[in-house]
Amino acid sequence: MCLSLCSAPLWAQSADLNAPLETVVFGSDDTLRGVVDRHLNDPDLWPYVLELNAISTPAAVVPGTALKLPVRQVRAADAALAQSLDAIQRANAEGAQVFAPQEIGEALQSRETAVGLRVSGQWVEVVSFSDIATALAIEALDISVAQRDQSAEAVVSDVQGSVEGRAPQDPRWSDRDLNDVLVEFERVRTLSDSTTQVTFRDLSRLRLNANSNATIQRMRSDPLTGTEVTKVSLVNGDFYALLNQLSDKTAFEVDIPGVETTTKSGDFWIKNDASGARFVNYDQEQLEVVSGAETIQIGENEGLVLSNAGAQRADVLDAPLLRSPAAEALLYDGFAPLEWSEFDGAEGYWVEVAIDPGFNQMQVSEWGVRGTALATAPLPPRTYHWRVAALDRLGLPGQWSKPQSFTLRVDDTPPFLTLLLPADGQIVTEPSVEILGASEPEALVQLNGARVAMGSDGSFILNTDLVPGPNILTLRAVDPAGNESTTAQTVIYRPAAQVSISLSPTLPRVNGALATRSDELSVFAASTAAQGAEVIVTSGSRDVLRTVVGTAGAISFSVPAEVAPTAYEIGVLGPTGLVEGALEFEVIRDQIAPEIVLDAPPPNATDLPDIDITGSAGDAAQMTVNGIDVPLDAGEFELVLSLAPGLNVFDLVATDPVGNVAATRLQTLYDIEPPSVGDIRVNRPQGASGPIEIVVVASDESGLRQAAPYILQVGAEELEGFLRCDSAAGLCRAALPAQPGALQLVEVIVEDYAGNAAFR
């Protein structure tokens, strides 16, 4: 049979391995580890990348550096590793460690070889060993599936120190090695400072601690029903059991001389020695102990001691807290100094260190440790998991602490360190300089002995003070393993002379910008620079022109002027080429005349001797009315114009700083004479019984108001109303309905637009 992942076409894998390297350009915000992690999924491959690109030091990798990266090769290697891991896991899930230990062991060894080759970039070999591991795992899976229906056996799944076994047919004890198969009635014992783990067919595990002796009395399996029955006799010593609780068809029994134990508990510890038997149950399910005629149920986190004094129960101690090393810590010297918090009531501690989180492969198992620390012997580089249980006065181990991991690593590679800014030999005119660089995030970085604060990605930026002359900036990085990298650069601080520059006050300005009506502006400035000093005029990053300082510090030049403001900068250079004085300014081409806006138009006619005129003149620098200057305040003006009888004409002229002119004319009639009233007629044009008509002949220079009030007596009755006036016709008239009686106009008032009135 074959796993789903083994179906990847070999031609695709070969194509990736033979594919050309991909080019990645190192950016200004990149770090070497970050680029390697982003493209190869492993930042620790950066030394390989440097070697591949024939780069001797990380400091040589600067923005713009093109790096050749084996992206597709890494992808193929990682895919092969993932495929082999999936195959191994599936085989183990089917019991390969029991039924095909050699094949699964070789598969694991091949995969570990592939993992090791990955570090040195041997991608073809990684894929080759991964494929071998996949094939072996598939073979182990096939064997395991076939053996599931065979007679039950157990396997030695971990050996630390000296472990011996004695099968029923063997005349003497002999060594037991990893993956040895154990059969019914086989005896197993551990010597001093030794432990072993026995894994049964249902994946239940039993770990014998030092100086322990046990016999596997019965291992039975019914292929038809799937029932598993296991019975172990503990002659002396102790073991910790972690049983498979996924099936109710599994039964596990423990015999101690004079005591029988049956359990549904999946997590318990048993010890037998000359002082008696001890039991601890860590599971919710009970552990049943039968001693003579007495049956005792041991509950969760409860212990029992059987001795000549009888049965004694006790609640086991809670789990202590682990202190050091911190969770997932990296250690570099091969030693793991373990520390935990003191637990009240503890007479000692049980410490375990394994290479797997399930504590199946034990490296350290120390019982009865005094104090709260244990210094382990040197351990090979890899990740380890450790836990501690407190021992009470009865010798019962308490609950295990929550496991934590640490990693021992061999690291003799100096940390990555680069200084991006400033450039070596750079000349600066300020008394401080910005330092920009990067190192490994875990490294301690110092600048001239002072610690440097770094970001989470290892980058750092800071300012440091300078003294006049050369300043040596020495960076030192030390990684957690004690490896050191240094780099140094020199910065020269040369204080610049302070040259002042000022523009001529006579230059026209609009909103602060120098202005002209033409497409070019002549600029005049004064400075404190020496005659002949070089002057550079720039606009943004573009050099516009160069000139020199004239006599008495005078500077003059011409620059283009656009409709939109253009920013320029005058820079006076010192002998070293550094800017010793600078001045920024803007230039604008202005061909738009200022706009004259009145707050309110003047009256067409008035009987007052003067009028008030207010408004604004935009960006005008000068304004006149009939040739007389008008004061401006931020473009606003206020006028009081005196009037002469008759028509008055005023010309307002506004001029901006560059000569654009706007003009507007105002007219007002000064009228103090009342309207001239001539003929007045009141009659009935259509006869004595017809309607009444009033007609008044009137005229005025400023025009007649449209309504003229009148009082008309008709017979004995007085009527009031308004005549409608037409200035153009010079008539005011009204028509009334027919009404008998004598007609007499009592009063009529004709008014002009200046407010003058004529009474009749």
3D structure, described in words:
- This protein is mainly beta.
- Helices cover 12% and strands 46% of the residues.
- It has seven helices and 59 strands.
- The strands form eleven sheets. It has a 17-stranded mixed β-sheet that branches. Strands 53-54-57-56-55-58-59 form a seven-stranded antiparallel β-sheet, with no helix packed on it. The chain has a six-stranded mixed β-sheet with strand order 37-38-44-43-40-41, with no helix packed on it.
- Helix 1 crosses helix 4 (71-93), helix 4 packs parallel to helix 7 (123-147) and helix 6 runs antiparallel to helix 7 (123-147).
Largest sheet: 17 strands, mixed
The shape, in one word, is elongated
As a percent range, the share of helical residues equals 10-25%
Integer average pLDDT: 88
> pLDDT below 50 for ≥5 consecutive residues: which ranges?
1-9
Multimeric status of the protein: single chain
Beta-strand percent range:
over 45%
Q: What's the total helix number?
A: 7
Radius of gyration, in angstroms, nearest whole number: 53 Å
Total strand segments: 59
Alpha-beta classification: mainly beta
Head-to-tail CA distance between termini: 130 Å
